[in-house]
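User: Okay, second chain of the day. Same drill as before: sequence in, structure tokens out.
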Amino acid sequence: MKSIKYGQLADSMGSIGVFFNGILIGRIIRIGVPRFVTERREEHFFRKYQGFGFNQELVESLLKKGISKIIVKYEDRETYLTSPREVKEEGNLYQAEGYEFQYIMPLRKMIDLTDRAEPPTPQGTL
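Assistant: Same drill. Structure tokens below.
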């Protein structure tokens, strides 16, 4: 049974909500370069690998939908950029007991956008 679901959100950007077991985990923004944007708190930080986990099913789904960017907003202080392909190829596949498989993507393999006024993309916006 698939646990990742998509649904239209009522916002000015035409976002598509991404839900895991009924909980909103992020959104796909379709303006400019299509990207998945997610917010993370300190309890989401995976200390063993010094990074963030991405549900394996989510990563596969984003790849199938042609989403080429993942933006992680961490604690409203930091912003990181990666891609579903990089997460799948360079992340550490991990499954905690009682949880789904996740790719853990270390921060050192992500681009830190925190102090940049404008992230690097072909169109100049994310």
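The chain has a mean pLDDT of 85.

User: Thanks, on to the next one.
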